[in-house]
Amino acid sequence: MRSLLGFFKGLNTLLLFIPVSIVLHFTPGMNPLWVFAAAALAIVPLAGMMGEATEELAKRLGSAMGGLLNATFGNATELIIGLFAIHEGLIDLVKASIVGSIIGNILLVLGASILAGGIKHKTQSFNQDQAESHAINLLLATLSLAVPAMIASHYHQLNTTQNNDIVNLSIGVAGVMLITYLASLFFSLKTHEKIFRSNDAEENEEPHWSKAKAFLVLGISTVLVALESEFLVKSVEGAAKSMGVNEVFIGIIIVAIIGNAAEHSTAVMMALKNKMDITINIAIGSSIQIAMFVAPVLVFAGLLMGHPMTFIFNMAELAVIGLSAIIVAFIATDGKCHWLEGAQLLAAYVVIALAFYFLP
Fold first, then answer.
1. Which of 74, 111, 268, 280 is the 20 to 30 A CA-CA neighbour of 125?
2. Considering the entire predicted model, what is its pTM?
């Protein structure tokens, strides 16, 4: 009994919303907002459990395989939500959640971490080579996401679901991004691993779970995330109407925060411990993974599902990604940070959230 009570503490308390969401989903006439809220709250601890299981497996498999495992499952929650949204034909929601995850990690997560860590430690330092590599990849991802929209806008081919050229262009760009992402992994985990090696002791921790337990937790949490993602996606339209907001705001702000909540807390905790290499890797690395791995996979998945998703983001979405990437590049590439930079990143995020909240 004591161990059970010990398990249901912190974020794990929200696991109680799993049965609640199931009951609400299957209750006739239920307000979609309640289903959406229950599913969203249930996903938060499940995403944390997936992340913890992945980390435990990474510790047992070595740096190269562990890095690859983290790269594959690091943003599995966003990928699963995106797959269900594509299946329902909610392409705009998928694109908005991609944008939200990118800016959420580099502005909200990194900003909160730098602010918290800077208040406690005044000035903090991190691996400059790693940060520069992340910044370049982030800018490359921004360029890759922007090019199809620029081409479509120039040639007035904005009816992208019917235009085979734009679909094929998006597939080509997705392929290039995936290859580049894999190359960057090989660079940081194999050929230049010493350059990217962190001095943070946290990375050399011994595993606390057995391999069997880690696989079991990863499997169960993945299945439950898939279930809750289905509830979330099917209730999102009704929830948007009930809240009086647009679906773009839900995708960019709410869904993105849900998928990254566990990472948010981990990044801030590492910054408070003055382990900024881990914080940078969580925040900027996750944004890169969303842009260069998750987004391309969703493009190919949409093609297989009969709901083609292109890289045609609207100008507002591209602007916030591009400007956010530039701000982070300036902050990340000098190898040190202080609390004011964190406050500036958070200010940028609040401005963007307000803009999309008041979007018609």
1. 74
2. 0.85
